[in-house]
């Protein structure tokens, strides 16, 4: 997926757009993927790893009432809140956020292993959020699929052919 990441970075550069990340379950893997791509310093402005619910509220501005919902931090609303929060915090054009359960067991709110929400928020754009249920597999596989899905979502937003 490094080739796709390079194409995404080049596309963002050509538009004069910037990107930020807010990550929970992926713990910086999406950020690292962009940081590894040539030219990323011109478009990737930074990110936040917010594992705990209170940090999602404190740092990213996710409303606490969303975090107290039955599904907890693994929800569409929280993913969108994380993306919008980091976009405002970092002053970026676009932001990608991840929240989910990589295992080895369901989270305290009953979300199953392999459930992940990815959101992309952008200046002047309606936020896009998708739920993925990768199923019970090891954490590394879930996280790798999550990063790939984030890249493909961004490619779709930019109108890029990922194939």
TrEMBL record:
Under Pfam families, the record lists:
CinA
Q: Which residues form a coiled coil?
A: none
| Domain CinA C-terminal span(s) in chain numbering | 7-156
InterPro entries hit by this protein? CinA-like_C (IPR036653), CinA_C (IPR008136)
State the name under which the record lists this protein. Competence/damage-inducible protein cinA
Q: What is the lineage of its organism?
A: Bacteria, Pseudomonadati, Pseudomonadota, Alphaproteobacteria, Hyphomicrobiales
């Amino acid at each position: 997926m490094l080739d796709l990441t390079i194409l995404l970075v080049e596309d963002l550069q050509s538009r004069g757009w910037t990107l930020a990340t807010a990550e929970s379950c992926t713990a910086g893997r999406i950020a690292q993927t962009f940081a590894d791509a040539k030219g990323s310093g011109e478009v990737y402005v930074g990110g936040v790893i917010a594992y705990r619910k209170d940090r999602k509220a404190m740092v990213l501005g996710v409303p606490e009432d969303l975090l107290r919902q039955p599904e907890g931090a693994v929800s569409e609303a929280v993913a969108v809140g994380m993306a919008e929060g980091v976009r405002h915090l970092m002053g970026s054009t676009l932001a990608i956020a991840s929240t989910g359960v990589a295992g080895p067991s369901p989270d305290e709110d009953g979300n199953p292993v392999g459930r992940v929400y990815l959101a992309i928020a952008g200046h002047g754009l309606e936020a896009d959020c998708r739920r993925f249920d990768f199923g019970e597999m090891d954490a590394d596989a879930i996280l790798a699929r999550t990063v790939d899905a984030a890249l493909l979502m961004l490619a779709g937003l930019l109108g890029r052919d990922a194939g």
